[in-house]
Write the structure tokens for this entry.
Amino acid sequence: MAQSEPNIILHAADVQKQFGGLRALSDVDLQVEEGKTHAIIGPNGAGKSTLLNVIIGRLPPTSGAVIFDGTVLTGKQPHEINQLGISRVFQTPEIFPDLTVLQNVMAPAFARRDGAFKINMLRSVDSETEIRDEALSLLEDIGMTGRLEDNAASLSRGDKRRLELAMCLIQRPRLLLLDEPTAGMSRHDTNTTIDLLKKIKSRGMTKVIIEHDMHVVFSLADKISVLAQGRIIASGLPQEIKEDPRVQEAYLGGSVE
Amino acid sequence: MFSLSRKDLTSLVVLAAIVLTMPIWLAPFGAAYPGLMQKFAIYAIFAVGFNILFGLTGYLSFGHAAFVGIGSYTAVWSFKLLTMDILPAMIFAVIISGLFALVIGYFCLRRTGIYFSILTLAFAQMCYSLAYSVLTPLTNGETGLLLAGNDPRYIDKMFGVTYGSGLPTPTFLGTTLGGYGGFYLTAIVLIVIFFISQKIFASPFGMALRGIKSNQTRMMYTGFNTKPYTLAAFVVSGMIAGLAGALLSVTDPLAGTERMRWTESGNVVLMTILGGVGTLFGPIVGAWLIKYFENIFSAINSNMLNNFFSFLPDGIQSLMVTVTSKFVGEGWHLTLGLMFVLIVVFLPGGLVEGAKRVAARFDRKKPRTGPAPAPQPAE
């Protein structure tokens, strides 16, 4: 089979972001290939979270545009961006603390099935067996079947992060954005999460991941971009990044691992 | 479509039994007369509807009495212009208050938290002032909108229905609604509204509303457009408030501005919080408690207290009467206020939460659930 042209699913084109006198992002040009895991690394304050917020529509870029599969995301509402097939895991887990664990995972599935707004009052949540089963199998994957009826507020921070991941995965997004998905997790939980993320790689989901933990980055990423002082200073395969002297200087502090 | 889970079906049957047997079990409390029981049912309807907005989405409206007033006026106008039958009156009241809720909700829901509450209060006060001044031709201002013998009643005329001399009384499909007839009508409407509230609570729609209360950011990034959801909840609760207003006019065919006063809007908030925000039964319990206090507790006078404490020696009797008389009669607000403070501080989930805790203590096999979070307006 001939190597086909890689399909760019997400393109941040010449994005600038200015906060008053501070230039958080300058001339950022990021291309993410479909089906790949693209990691963005960089020291604190490099603009990683700002970039993610621009992509998801939380912050408008000062100039430039973000294009997802031919659609310009700039100026769209968060729910519209999600309905296009983009889900996001936040740095501080955004879950529904007052709902049960099971409901937390079921709710996003309704957004996927019924769209951004639908008054479906006639059937009960409990009678939606298809969505329920899907949620249950996902919760089994993240090992939380024992806590289905607990309020999500009672979970540990690590469990909240995994729950949020399940909430994104049940939407079967085309693009999954992960903002430090393993921060605050034990080594064991981190490895479980890596395994889970590897498993969903085979489903053909594109992932953009921001991460501090080099262990996580090098076990997951197909491609890495390094952000420093609001600029992308290098972009390439993990091996190239490891060996790039500029990267070592800016971020890795001279040596890797 | 009409199916309920086993648990919800049990609740519905229990509620129906409690409501329909009111004339029996309210008798020992001295409240078993139709006029008061109607009020119990009507204000329970109002509170159940209010809870769909406040309990599920967390948006605290301080202006829901406006919809009660609008429903009342609409119903009386339906009696004056169309027919004395209550069905058109109720249907029009629901439609008109729903339209008002759509417009008012559209503007108020552009803000959240305290700003939303203030906006609803402002709109309600506007409705109240308009009813008093500019809209006097429609509302008859201070006197209130009354029926008159010479009202046109076009539909009744078409069918040749006449009411003889004197003021006509509302009818239901040709039957006059007497005291108990009026009570059973409101009781059945309450059961129907409770059923609708159960359907909403259990549905994906209800879950989305709870999601908005719990974490609006996550809702948006999960692909829900939260604005139409909150607007739908606002309109539904406004329509139910309108229906409650219509029932007030059905059981007593007049409408006055006092139904739109801000204290009425505040009362429904108290009812919901007292009973338990976001629970199915809470608003009903709260509504009954407040209406009971307002009508029965406020009527206790020092004579009755003297009789009650007559078994005590003279000195202590007069002391007890002096102390307790501050809490009853005119002072019923004091009792209610103290109760409200105690419940908000010690039982943030309201009386229903308290009942659950008591039940959990008796039934130790069940795992204890944590206390419900205090009611909070949406972010």
User: Anything to note?
Assistant: Strands of chain A lie at 8-19, 22-33, 37-41, 63-68, 71-72, 86-89, 175-179, 206-210, 223-228, 231-236.
